[in-house]
Design a protein that fits this description.
The protein is an alpha/beta fold. The chain has 16 helices and 11 strands. It has a 6-stranded parallel sheet with strand order 2-1-3-4-5-6, sandwiched between helices. α2 crosses α16.
Length: 325
């Protein structure tokens, strides 16, 4: 089957599209869309399936109109993967779906399925995953070496808008105590220099390394003794959870029901539910490298089943079940 992805962002073009390739499909990634490029891709590539996902530059208002016009005028099934649910469900995902009118929606949030069905769009749940060629075990990179590492954006501006967001609680018990204690944490990502109001202390500039190209993230995961991974929701896990484990990283994350459903704490990763517990875990595992290594190895084995080839196969299965394909 020929699958066209309407996307250009590095976070999305290296994951699910590669999973479809692994599953035996012919895949084309559009890159930045233009008014002339989209109809040309449809005409020349002749896809059997079109997939859009996330919230990137390819989802601007005028591009939504192009997709509605050019894709909507074909008989090709168009699938949207709503990766911004539930946080931006009302502000983006639902308006996007209402405008573009895809044939089917996959959402990372189970409770949102009913919302899509209410507006006449068939929907199913599909979680994040990882791709083994992108997030893989490798050598320690000297310039990226750290005791404790974080690869994420601070999202300081978004968190001001959502004061009850679970990510605030996650940051509060995972990162805030370390920063306030002066325990060095190396940060890769945007907006960490703006996090004093949230963390209660300013992160020293020497700890902040700025934007990290997505394909290089595994190098940090391989080079840190401990990785701290904040969670966004109680009922779902971040994509980085899979990517860190897939890269063989040792992960300390928030103790949530979904983490416990997918993984076994103390075997695949380590969980914390308080600032005191985070301090204790960091001190303990810094002194016990053999235990870190045991957990790294087991976590990497456990996460294998969450690769994007399996996600692609699941999508096809669901689309056949709902008679989209």
């Amino acid at each position: 089957m020929k699958v066209l992805f309407l996307e250009s962002h590095p976070m999305w073009i290296h994951g699910l599209p590669n999973g479809f390739r692994d599953a035996g499909h012919t895949v084309k990634v559009s890159g930045p869309l233009t008014r002339k490029k989209l109809p040309r891709l449809l005409r020349q590539f002749k896809p059997d399936l079109i997939i859009s996902m996330g919230w990137t530059n390819e989802h601007s208002g005028h591009k939504q109109q192009w997709i509605k016009r050019f894709v909507g005028s074909t008989a090709i099934p168009h699938i949207y993967w709503a990766t911004e649910d539930p946080t931006h469900h009302e502000s983006f995902s639902l308006p996007y779906v209402r405008t573009v009118k895809p044939d089917f929606v996959f959402t990372i949030c189970r409770s949102m399925i009913k919302d899509y069905k209410k507006i006449g769009i068939k929907a199913a749940h599909m979680d994040f995953g990882y791709h083994r060629k992108v997030h893989r075990k490798g050598k320690v990179v000297k310039r990226l070496r750290s005791n404790i590492g974080v690869v994420a954006n601070g999202y300081s501006r978004i968190l001001k808008i959502y004061p009850r967001h679970f990510r605030l609680k996650s940051l509060d018990h995972l990162i805030r105590p370390l920063v306030k204690d002066g325990t060095r944490v190396d940060f890769w990502g945007r907006q960490w220099d703006e996090m004093k109001p949230i963390l209660g202390a300013r992160i020293p500039r020497s700890w902040i390394h700025g934007y990290l190209p997505y394909p290089d993230a595994h190098k940090v995961y391989n080079s840190a003794k401990i990785l701290i991974g904040p969670q966004n929701q109680l009922s779902q896990v971040t994509q980085r959870t899979y990517e860190i484990l897939g890269s063989g990283g040792f992960l300390i994350t928030s103790d949530t029901p979904e983490i416990r459903r997918l993984f076994k704490p103390g075997r695949d990763l380590v969980v914390s539910r308080s600032a005191r517990q985070t301090r204790k875990l960091v001190r303990y595992y810094m002194k016990h490298p053999k235990e870190r290594e045991r957990i790294r190895k087991r976590g990497r084995r456990t996460v294998l089943k969450h690769n994007y080839k399996r996600r692609a196969q699941y999508m096809i299965q669901q689309l056949k079940k709902y008679k989209i394909l």
